[in-house]
Amino acid sequence: MTVETVLLFALAAVAVTVLVRCVADRTGLPAAALLTIVGIGYALLPGPNITLEPDVVLTFVLPPLLYSAALDSSLLAIRRNLRTVVSLSVVLVLVTALAIGVAFEVFVAGATLATGIAVGAAVAPPDPVAALAVGRKVGLPVKLITLIQGEGLLNDATALTTLSVAVAAASGAGFSFPSALAPPSESVDTKR
Considering Cα of 190, then 185, then 153, then 37, what sign does the dihedral take? Predict the structure, then answer.
């Protein structure tokens, strides 16, 4: 794909984003939900599509989004509700990834548990943007908004860590807890 084509796609994406924002302001619908619908519509269109490398997304797309969400959050309020935030963002994401992994292994012929957990980790963390937009409009309590913000900041990290461990287990010789818990400089021999 040429540089001109990529720039044309970027310009079109900005124009669509501005247009969707105008529609959202006039209709009162959440812009995140409208952008999701537009994205699904674009994916169904025939023609060229841009594919992004995962490293580009993890390096250039995700950090600014998390930074913006962190600026909008109150660290003190999140610390006051830390137990609930951690249970939602870590425990619930891990349980969801594991449940999807087990179901994937059981119902998909030839699939392994590690592959299923990788799929589960990819779909486990919910995106809080639309929920926060709707929640603020309907006047949800501040504590609930804080829980959604805190969970949104931490669930991506949990899912990315789970995904990387599951992919390593699926592509390698397997997974062992001693190797996962050992510092990176040490190697743990689990075959004794």
Answer: negative
